[in-house]
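Encode chain A's predicted structure.
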Amino acid sequence: MQSIVMKAYIHAPIERVWDVFSDHENYSRLKGVAYSKLLKEGVNERNGVGAVREVHGMGVKFVEDIVTFEPPHVLEYKVVRCSKPIEHEIGRVELISRGEGTEIHWVSRYRLKIPLIGKWLGERNRVVARDWFYDCVLDMKDKLEGEASNGF
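Encoded structure for chain A:
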């Protein structure tokens, strides 16, 4: 099993960071996300538990179910379909208010389902995916921290 772990700090209120992380349809506004769409609304909240989103990035298409939605702190998802052979355990984004900003902890656990070389390829893939997570979050950071001037 591979784990992608990403931590970052954004100098913006937790509610504003949550708004961006939980707005599935607008992920495509972030660097590295080619396409995003809300396929199904959640049970009690549009982007909440039961929502299904589609995200394209890194040349890969993901369809993900939202399994935990606790505004403005925790969002968990599970990849249920993917254009690559993966078995996804869970993805978890946790937001923690720190001073005048927000600390982000993002973890995703999966394995590549490729006989013999899956573990080796999985490690290489983990590094690429981790860099993609950072690109998305750093772009979010730039936009949110410059929000007053650019209207993100």
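The radius of gyration is 15 Å.
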